[in-house]
Amino acid sequence: MEGSPYLSEDLLVEILARLPVQSLLRLSTVSKSWKTIIASPKFCSFHLSTNRNSSKILLTAQDRGQGGVAFGKRPEERHFLLNNYENLPADPSWLTPFDFPFEYPDWTSHHIVGSINGLICISQSLSYFPDAQPNLPIILWNPTVERHVCLPDPTFSLAYNASIEFGYAAATDDYKIVVVRQLGETIAPEFHVYSLNSNAWRGGFEMCPPAAAPVRNIEERGDRRIFGSTGAFAGGKMHWLVSNDYEMEPYCDTLYTFDVAEEVFAEVGLPPPPEEMTQLIRGTPRVAVVRDLLHVVQPTLITLQMYMYWTIWVKMEDAGSCDMYWKKLYRVDDVTAVFVCLLKNGELVMDKDPNFSRTVLHDVHGALVAYDPRDGKFKDLEPLSLSQQRAFGNVESRNHQETLVLLDRTLIDDPQTTWNTCQVQIEKDDN
Q1: Residue 300 belongs to what H/E stretch?
Q2: Which of 312, 311, 127, 118 lies closest to 229, judged by CA?
Q3: Is 15 contained in some domain?
């Protein structure tokens, strides 16, 4: 074989599959035969399955300073990658800057919907400017191989009340995007599905009430519900946090799931509320995924004492049954810290206010810290020079890994897309 006379192709593939993506990209320039192997769909899939434990966390933080509707511009954002090792304690060296190459107008901003198998889904966010009309495409981007795909323009409006999630169907090797649209108080939500394999949208399908466990303690006060994206993909399912649209109970009360392969919705109740609800306020929970298991992190505020704690739950499944229940892992008591993400080593990453008394000024900087619930200790992850430039309490996280996804696809011009970019065609293996 050209370039490797002493190695069989099978052995060469085994060796290459254990290398990081950046090394493979350099090696693909060694010979034509190596490039053919590395860019093949079969090898890309094999490399992905071999490196499942190599993961990172993509963090997005807002800068301090003026932004929002009153100033006619969005707050500036910074992005970081955080290593996520299973058998090592978190360390400041794990945090590195991450370049985001896409430019957005001042009146809008981008939203990282999710990241699956190294492919990041990005949509336009109108959270700061709800009256603006969205006209920018949804993007699928693999930063490691520097390839991206702009989706065809949808046949429906991406209004501010639309909610987007990103998922993957392993059986068909297809990446899908689902948009849920709430059209009115008396109209059932509808959903639309995009498939990367077909490069097309389907919809709008009426979202029928899912047959699942009933939601606890919810009175019948109308059908309108608010769907909140979580970016959490676990067990082959997307997840939305859902709350009823009425004033007395503003917190989220249930999860909606969408099975990406079967394309069906189901409803799952959230963990139970604290036993003593007097003088307690439950905030909006965070949803995280660790080792393909869904976790819910529930903030609770004791109003009279101004004391806050976070409860971490993991979703379990009974053997031989589809009934789901929640197992309480631990509780973090700290009013000065906001949850960011969970690490595979059992530590929590939190955004800690270094001067809690100044929080009322709404202009404090946070400090990313790792918290180990086993010993109750915090340790710094973020240099002071970085933390002083961003706002406290506005850090979002998405799981991420470096892969070859999209390297096996040929990019061509797509006249159906607002931006003059591309659609995709899958390269065929010779075998």
Answers
A1: strand 293-302
A2: 127
A3: no
Residue 431, in any domain of the structure? no
The answer to whether residue 419 sits within a structural domain is no
- First-to-last alpha carbon distance for the chain, in angstroms, is 17
99 φ/ψ sector (left φ>0, alpha ψ -120 to 50, else beta): beta
The CATH number that applies at residue 90 is 2.120.10.80
Q: What is the pLDDT of residue 361?
A: 37
Q: Please tell me the predicted confidence (pLDDT) of residue 124.
A: 78
Q: Is residue 1 assigned to a domain?
A: no
Cis peptide bond upstream of 204, omega within 30: yes
Q: How many domains does the chain have?
A: 1
This prediction's pTM = 0.84
Q: Is the peptide bond before 184 cis (omega within 30 degrees of 0)?
A: no
Give the sheet arrangement for strand 200-206, strand by strand: 162-169, 174-181, 190-195, 200-206
With vertex at residue 110, the alpha carbon angle to CA 95 and CA 354, rounded to the nearest 5 degrees, is 40
How confident is the model at residue 81, as a pLDDT? 94
Which domain, by its residues, includes 376?
55-401
pLDDT under 50: residue ranges of the chain:
1, 4, 69-70, 128-129, 211-222, 247-249, 319-323, 357-364, 412-428, 430-431
How many other C-beta atoms lie within 10 A of the C-beta of residue 212?
17
Q: Are 141 and 419 in contact (CB under 8 A)?
A: no
Q: Which of 260, 257, 282, 280 is nearest to 271 (CA)?
A: 282
